[in-house]
Amino acid sequence: DMGGHDTYMHKEISEQPDAVDRVLRGRIDDRFSTVHLGGLNLDAREARGIRRVKILGCGTSYHAGMIGAGLVESLARIPADAEPASEFRYRNPVVDPDTLYIAVSQSGETYDVLAAVQELKRKGARVLGVVNVVGSAIARETDGGVYVHAGPEVCVVSTKCFTNTVVAFALLALHLGRIRDLSVADGKRIIDGLRRLPAQISEILELEDEIKKLADLYADAKSMMFIGRVRGYPVALEASLKLKEISYIHAEAYPASELKHGPLALIEPALPTVAIVPDDELLEKNRAALEEVKARSGRILAVAHQEQEKADHTIVVPKNEDELDPILMGIPLQLLAYHTALSLGRDIDKPRNLAKSVTVE
Length: 361
Ligand code: M6R
Hints:
By secondary structure, the chain is an alpha/beta fold. It has 14 helices and twelve strands. The strands form three sheets. It has a five-stranded parallel β-sheet with strand order 4-3-5-6-7, with helices on both faces. A five-stranded parallel β-sheet has the order 9-8-10-11-12, with helices on both faces. Strands 1-2 form a two-stranded antiparallel ribbon. The two termini are 31 Å apart.
């Protein structure tokens, strides 16, 4: 049932305010400015002993894990990174008892992720899951975890589950942070920010007509460049994947700082750049990247908290706490990919060559 929407993708994009509400519900503890995660199965002493966090997933879940790693580093001050599960599995990784491993999966059935979990467990590691489908294979194999509560996602491309997964990571990072060195004040700041998300997502969804017009303008591109920096880089990666999957337009994502190390050679009017430009401590750096692109007469579409002078178009999104901004900045780009694919007449819910869950190697 598409509930009045033309596609599941559109329905699922629209459901995000409710979905985010659901992942937060019942978990916030205002008294201690922290969260309760019932299924985590990790006590405070164990949480204090974690020396590293390694996040494993595929595709969109890997991108959500990249943002998750950034949240764990900034809120809990634990070194963290994300890696595609299959890469991890085949490079005979050093498995370390002080590392917390986290498997991320919407379906909970992705073979590469499941196999990585099994390999880790065989080696005695502690593995948690950040999973959407309750009772799925990965949920069962892991020692505990955080359910994402995005609800069923039917469209082959992931949208609401991406957003909810990142929010689930924010909860986990807040929880670990408050056991370690995150202050009550910072805990409260993040909780207040999390509570603002559903209404802010609704505000972004109201920009759909404007985004549709932009999509029509850019749909003639043969290729698109997505750039972002630190927190913005996984947003760029995910936006580029979304565009590829459903519009079949070639897209690349780069850290903004890497442009001058090569990809700047590609910039010309026929290759538009989508830039993630949050109003944070890196704003001036990001503006400099826009200038580099503009100087090569590249068209620029910015996603930012205020109009960007160097950009041809800016999608202005509401500001949250710096750490949570990536959650909001991805949403207009889901709509951009959607309307680009729509104007090209693509089969949005079932893109060619793809399956919803990849249960084979
Ligand atoms: O179910 P999972 O989250 O484990 O799936 C992982 C990827 O296969 C998935 O995210 C894929 O990249 C989607 N088509 C993204 O839109």
